[in-house]
């Protein structure tokens, strides 16, 4: 099945596989700094013979300073992770990278929130003509009866105090039906076989009645 | 609207199914007293009238597919989805002239196997038996699975227990009463199905009018109203031929043709088709109401019961909604399961036990043999249903097999001369090419290709090396 | 199959009208109801004539 490029939702799988993306993730940057700080805090063995070179143990004041900094960093991470809203992820049900529907049906599910949710559908990428397709606590919906064309979907959570969260990454689906030529071939062949079948039964019945 | 929770308490679901089950079994025992001979057991005395004949044919063709898949098709394929499914009634109507001819040619016939053996010899008979046993058991298994899933979804009953319960109930009353029990219970079940669908449909109209539905569809699901809806149209003739093949070849319908009085059979089958035609439309309409009623559909396969439950809830029926839906669906499944059990076991007795193994069925002592056959069939179905193997694919692909039998049946009943070996080759060719088309091209071409290829061979068999066909009496 | 370009022009498609849907639905429901009535009527007739089974 063909897939259409452009306006496709961010694929978290691609992000995880991309080393560049990983390096740029804030959490990874902080973690690498922690690792570097921590490696300096680890005691190296005190060499018995000071003339062969030893790694000087940090002074007490410096040790305390670094401990405080490390503690602040870890504490800050905890605070940040609790404050950031969970990202809703909109995907097909079952998950698939296929973005073409051949019968005008789209089965959507969204993960990462507790609800209630609002799902929007639009024909333009900027959601200028968006309309709400669903509002409620369910985490999936099936949309049918879509004509040929491109459809963009996005979902957001409405928090307990009525404030909406950010929209999820949009998901684009293309509805593309069977070509007219193939359809008429099927209809023509089917009509031919069915008509002959009906004719044979009626003819046989009338002959033997 | 959340749909994961059962609509009924478990205890209510158990009581309902057990209550209905006891009713069917008691009736089965009562009616079964009329079956004093094997002919009485298998063919209800060959004297069934038009009311019971029409009802049994109609009820058997109303399966859980009719009540569950019709709404699904309407929800996904719109108006054409409903109309295309309704065209499956044409198979029943077309069986009317066949039934007329069957009774003329086979006055002492018992099963469809009798026709294939006498017309197409042992080779044709063997091919027919393989096809029909695969199809019949697959159909039976899908009904058992549907029953188990229904009881689990509606009543919270464990799948294995529910599936075993539905199958067990049908086995019991078929065992005791044979075709008398099947036909008698079919009449009651058909009334429940018809009344239930009408009640739910008119209740839906109390809460949403058709104009609102149409306006909603135009705005939100316009393709469902399109006259040229490709997704709906592409399978229309394939499914029609699938339906023709199912009815024309299967012993479920042949046994009814033999069971009814000779002049009644054609009229009963035609009437059953007429009675069946509006059911997918009435059931399908519910699915179109989902959007206007604000029902969020999360599983299209359950859109019918989901909307029905919502509508009956709006009507203030509360838990009665689940009761009504469960009863209607249970009846639609039981009316097909009992027919399949009876007809398939008849094939095993008549064609395998008597035909292949050359045994003689003692007219007075037929019950143990028939009972064994029913139990064997049900155990096979139960085991396959237990595995929850994705047997839907097998059933749908069987369209290629059954469609390949359409023209051999027509030719064998109505034509005067035929090249029998060529027809048998045509059946096999139709099966092979149909299955190839199903898996390699698209599923909605399997039955069409099977029927077309078999048709070509059968036509050729009329002109190439054709020999006069004899009578069908032994 | 062809590419992503649409081969159907929605403006040329005709749709089933509201009237058609109204007739279809009512016909379906009334026809189904008549089916139940017919079966009961035939049952009574067969029973009276002794032609049930």
Automatic annotation (TrEMBL), chain B:
<feature type="transmembrane region" description="Helical">
    <location>
        <begin position="313"/>
        <end position="331"/>
    </location>
</feature>
<feature type="transmembrane region" description="Helical">
    <location>
        <begin position="369"/>
        <end position="387"/>
    </location>
</feature>
<dbReference type="GO" id="GO:0016020">
    <property type="term" value="C:membrane"/>
</dbReference>
<feature type="transmembrane region" description="Helical">
    <location>
        <begin position="82"/>
        <end position="102"/>
    </location>
</feature>
<feature type="transmembrane region" description="Helical">
    <location>
        <begin position="393"/>
        <end position="415"/>
    </location>
</feature>
<dbReference type="InterPro" id="IPR031155">
    <property type="entry name" value="DUR"/>
</dbReference>
<feature type="transmembrane region" description="Helical">
    <location>
        <begin position="123"/>
        <end position="147"/>
    </location>
</feature>
<feature type="transmembrane region" description="Helical">
    <location>
        <begin position="190"/>
        <end position="208"/>
    </location>
</feature>
<feature type="transmembrane region" description="Helical">
    <location>
        <begin position="159"/>
        <end position="183"/>
    </location>
</feature>
<feature type="transmembrane region" description="Helical">
    <location>
        <begin position="12"/>
        <end position="31"/>
    </location>
</feature>
<keyword id="KW-0812">Transmembrane</keyword>
<feature type="transmembrane region" description="Helical">
    <location>
        <begin position="228"/>
        <end position="247"/>
    </location>
</feature>
<dbReference type="GO" id="GO:0015204">
    <property type="term" value="F:urea transmembrane transporter activity"/>
</dbReference>
<feature type="transmembrane region" description="Helical">
    <location>
        <begin position="445"/>
        <end position="464"/>
    </location>
</feature>
<feature type="transmembrane region" description="Helical">
    <location>
        <begin position="268"/>
        <end position="293"/>
    </location>
</feature>
<keyword id="KW-0472">Membrane</keyword>
<feature type="transmembrane region" description="Helical">
    <location>
        <begin position="43"/>
        <end position="62"/>
    </location>
</feature>
<dbReference type="Pfam" id="PF00474">
    <property type="entry name" value="SSF"/>
</dbReference>
<feature type="transmembrane region" description="Helical">
    <location>
        <begin position="422"/>
        <end position="439"/>
    </location>
</feature>
<protein>
    <submittedName>
        <fullName>Na+/proline symporter</fullName>
    </submittedName>
</protein>
<dbReference type="InterPro" id="IPR001734">
    <property type="entry name" value="Na/solute_symporter"/>
</dbReference>
<dbReference type="InterPro" id="IPR018212">
    <property type="entry name" value="Na/solute_symporter_CS"/>
</dbReference>
<comment type="similarity">
    <text>Belongs to the sodium:solute symporter (SSF) (TC 2.A.21) family.</text>
</comment>
<dbReference type="InterPro" id="IPR038377">
    <property type="entry name" value="Na/Glc_symporter_sf"/>
</dbReference>
<keyword id="KW-0813">Transport</keyword>
<keyword id="KW-1133">Transmembrane helix</keyword>
